[in-house]
Amino acid sequence: MGSDRGPGAVVAGLVLSAAQLPDAKFLLHGDSAIVAPLLARHPELGSRVTLRHAPRVVTMQDKPSQVMRHGEGTSMWSCIDAVKNGEAAVAVSCGNTGALMAVSMIRLRKLPGVNRPAIACLWPSRNPGGFNVMLDVGADIKAEAADLLQYAAMGASYARNGLKLDRPRVGLLNVGTEEHKGRAELKDANDQLALAAEAGGYEYIGFVEGGDLPSDRVDVIVTDGFTGNIALKTAEGTAKLISDFMREAFNAGILSKFAALLALNSLKRLQRRMDPRRVNGGIFLGLNGTVIKSHGSADETGVAAAIALAYQLSSAGFLARLAARVASTVRAGQDAVVDSGADRAEAKSSE
Amino acid sequence: MGSDRGPGAVVAGLVLSAAQLPDAKFLLHGDSAIVAPLLARHPELGSRVTLRHAPRVVTMQDKPSQVMRHGEGTSMWSCIDAVKNGEAAVAVSCGNTGALMAVSMIRLRKLPGVNRPAIACLWPSRNPGGFNVMLDVGADIKAEAADLLQYAAMGASYARNGLKLDRPRVGLLNVGTEEHKGRAELKDANDQLALAAEAGGYEYIGFVEGGDLPSDRVDVIVTDGFTGNIALKTAEGTAKLISDFMREAFNAGILSKFAALLALNSLKRLQRRMDPRRVNGGIFLGLNGTVIKSHGSADETGVAAAIALAYQLSSAGFLARLAARVASTVRAGQDAVVDSGADRAEAKSSE
């Protein structure tokens, strides 16, 4: 109800998904006066979609703190509660990101052992699968070393189950790759991520830089939510600038226009590779339930992509795997901290 | 001597610059056994270039702390000392960035009132001039509110003298544009930048996001060196990824190749707009001297662009203007802090 394109785009996405995923069933949350007529136009959805009436809507302008306190009766709240009650395996929403995180936090609560949940996104890359994972891209504005370790465990689990990578390579975002670089919490995190790699089921490759985000030497990039959010929006802004410049270049003169026409297939192929709709779906990690945040402006293709991701993760038993992996990684990280503390004490006493 | 392409590219850049800037004179620092023969091939440089022999070289692998302590006799040290001694108006180097900053700090010292010097870069944008200014992109890994205020004053002064903007619009990089967003030091900085705008000679537009970096609603973007460095490298990485994908797209099949041939002019125009050589020259701000850091891999065009910037800034009397502006802005910022402290105390007592 609260997306930029309204419930029409969501129902159109459902139609695509229903055809692609023959054994999926859907709970749709919204104002039945508006949504029921939209559903009625698609008799092929039949009994596969159950409409849950929710009289209220969270808008893009609503403050997360307000929605957290007074959000009952909204379609967003109803959707998250379906996961909480075990009726749904995954929640998908195109609504207000901050509000969705707030409602998810209060209704689903954090996974045992998780201090700060994170939002992970897929990042177009040179890897064979076409994407890397980056987190946190904006759930929280800061992260201590222990949080970054949890992000590594969660991001690696997501890459295994979402991108089907056996042993994802994890890197920690920094301003240089040398070990002495960066803030104090990054040096601590660097040690902990290395020591917990076995338990986390990932290969730790150390620090990576902004230029490595789309590279094929890393699969999962770990950073705090402030830096991650700036990097994500900077990359989107850069891609938009280049695509505008490219359009202007191809519109400058008859010859260019003719060339663009000839190059149409190539340009389309390029567009497809960079298409944000194909990577639609930030995912909230670290809660007792899986929540996928689709772009607010997602069209039917974008909505269907988010649903496909939801389906894949629930089929893989993602949540249980993630929870187990976080528990063992955090334990390994704590052991590492205790060990290196002991090492330091020993080193000191032998001085 | 320490650039990726060696002294040949620098001499070739000098040849271009000497033709473009008929009243400029040059001090060239390096091993005369290597550099003198290169100069001898260009008699047209004649008396305009003076060679200063420096037997040692700072390499890209040298640690800044080592160079700071033991860098005497290197061409980098000699170059900075020429500015320190008043023989040169501006220093230009293609060498090791960290070492250049370290040597600049120790030889030139910080401007009165400046706590942390910053590196500013030009950012391709939709503005009429084609560029925005961003700082800090990596001189320091953190910045307090007072540092961000100094960056605003320095960045605005650079935009006035380097980009010829009368009253640059300054924005503060954050994860959202609402006033309540972001870290504590950003909220403080937001207040201080607004209150010191008059003294700093800029218009303060508040928080901006990563997507605004190339936009035409801002001229100077202020951030800490950690975030700025990640954003810069993320943007470079994204541009590189898109250009690689584009090349692949245009190489896929005969028709595409033919189209690319027809579109050659358009593609060249696009490339020119995004060409990093045109924006060559990060600048160190906040020292008793102007230092321009050219890309390590700069070719003759890049070197000439950095020299052209150096020439423009020195003709504009940039350093004296910058120093005056920093002094008055810092004073205004301090007044603002004192005032708002008093306001708060008043508000409290009247509660």
Strand content of chain A: 5-15%
Unreliable stretches of chain A (pLDDT < 50, length at least 5) are 342-351
Structurally, the number of domains of chain A stands at: 2
Class by SSE composition of chain A = alpha/beta
Strand order of the largest sheet of chain A: 3-10-9-4-5-8-6-7
What separation lies between the terminal Cα atoms of chain A? 66 Å
| General form of chain A | globular
Give the assembly state of these chains: homodimer
> Quick one: biggest sheet of chain A?
8 strands, mixed
Helix-strand string of chain A = HEHEHHEHEEHEHHEEHHHEEHH
CATH domain class name of the largest domain in chain A: Alpha Beta
Largest interface, with Cβ-Cβ < 8 Å? A-B, 56 and 56 residues
EC number (chains A, B): 2.3.1.274
Pfam families (chains A, B): FA_synthesis
Catalytic activity (chains A, B): a fatty acyl-[ACP] + phosphate = an acyl phosphate + holo-[ACP]
Subcellular location (chains A, B): Cytoplasm
Note the topology.
The structure is a homodimer of 351-residue chains.
Chain A (H helix, E strand, L loop, with lengths): L6 H14 L5 E5 L1 H9 L8 E5 L10 H7 L4 H10 L5 E4 L3 H12 L9 E7 L6 E5 L9 H18 L6 E5 L10 H12 L1 H4 L2 E6 L11 E3 L2 H27 L2 H9 L1 H11 L7 E4 L4 E4 L6 H16 L2 H32 L2
Helix pairs in contact in A: 1-12, 3-5, 4-5, 6-7, 6-13, 7-13
